[in-house]
Amino acid sequence: MEASAPAYLAPGEGLGTATAKDKKEEFLSQLINRLNELFITDQLTEKDMVNYAYTIRDKVSENDRVMQQIRNNSSEQAMLGDFSTAIDDAILGSSDAHQNQMMQLLSDATKAAGFSKLVFDLLMQRNEGV
Fold first, then answer.
1. Using one digit for the tens of pLDDT, what is the confidence trace for 15-49?
2. Residue 19: helix, strand or coil by DSSP?
3. Model-level pTM?
4. Which residues of 33-100 form beta strands (DSSP E)?
5. CA gap 28, 15 in Å, rounded
6. Which of 84, 86, 64 minimizes the C-alpha distance to 76?
7. How far out from the chain centre does Cα 1 lie?
8. I need a surface site. Which of 15, 81, 100, 121 has the fewest CB within 10 A?
9. What is the pLDDT of residues 45-61, one digit of tens each?
10. Is the dihedral of CA 117, 100, 63, 51 positive or negative?
């Protein structure tokens, strides 16, 4: 058998040049991964899923009793309290609220025009980086 030259690893480049991930970006990435595990995503965009999660979060946060339980207990204990009922109520409540808004906009051209302008202004603000 022939003796071959010993193999050496090539030294790495850019040692210590990595930047830390933005915490918001990392959280959003983890959130999207978790949502992808939960939902059949064929007809849902990542933004659909993220916006829905935030909508439900905001609806649950309107429940003072649940928020007090979250603040004063471990996650395991808080989830045994009123949290599951609050989630169900938030899911149903957000659907009702969206349905109500949708019907108002589809049945009133003045409201629809005002809402269109509002959304346009939001998009312009986003585009300007505000």
1. 555 566 689 899 999 999 999 999 988 899 999 99
2. coil
3. 0.71
4. none
5. 27
6. 84
7. 61
8. 15
9. 999 999 999 999 999 99
10. negative
Residue 49's CB is within 10 A of a number of other CB atoms, namely 18
Q: Report the distance separating Cα 48 and Cα 98, nearest Å.
A: 14
Residues in the chain: 130
The identity of residue 63, as a single letter, is N
Contact (Cβ atoms closer than 8 angstroms) between residue 59 and residue 93: yes
Q: How far is CA 116 from the centre of its chain?
A: 24
Task: State the residue for tokens 């933005």.
Answer: 22
Instruction: Decide: residue 41, CB within 10 A, 0-12 exposed, 13-18 middle, 19+ buried.
Output: middle
Alpha-carbon distances, residue 63 vs 9, 15, 90 (angstroms): 58, 49, 9
Give residue 94's identity as a one-letter amino acid code.
S
